[in-house]
Amino acid sequence: MLEELKQAEVERLNHEINFVLPKEIEKARAHGDLRENSEYKAALERQQFVTSRLSHLRLRLSKLSSVHESDIPRDRVGFGSRVTVQDAETKRKETYALTLGEFVEGDDDGDEMSVSMASPLGKALLGAKVGQTVAISLPVGQRRLKVVDLETVHDLADK
To answer: What is the pTM of this model?
Structure first.
């Protein structure tokens, strides 16, 4: 589903860059002097942004399509896992959903926070099993989290 959402955004941006923006640029050119034409400048800036976003999305989709369900562990934290941890010091429990960077499905609610696998927290949790304690080095010091519950993508798909 996540891949479909990103693919839909790619299609929308492709339409914008190939059809909508050229018309806007042509319309702005018709107004005359391009040096002081704010509509022309805005259309060019939008064109640059859309081109950059498309490039970024294509790269991320390529990475996402290389993730195979069979490569994701069933008993350890991996891509798509929902993991509940308990802080060793405060005993407070938190639930995280591991994602690929900006590929966050839905909005964070009060019970679960999305975390990138590339973040310090995501890296520390990757590969951890229930009962295992992981340490995360933060600017304010080290934090120790015990994995108390784990749902992998395999578990979540069975629901």
So the answer is: 0.57
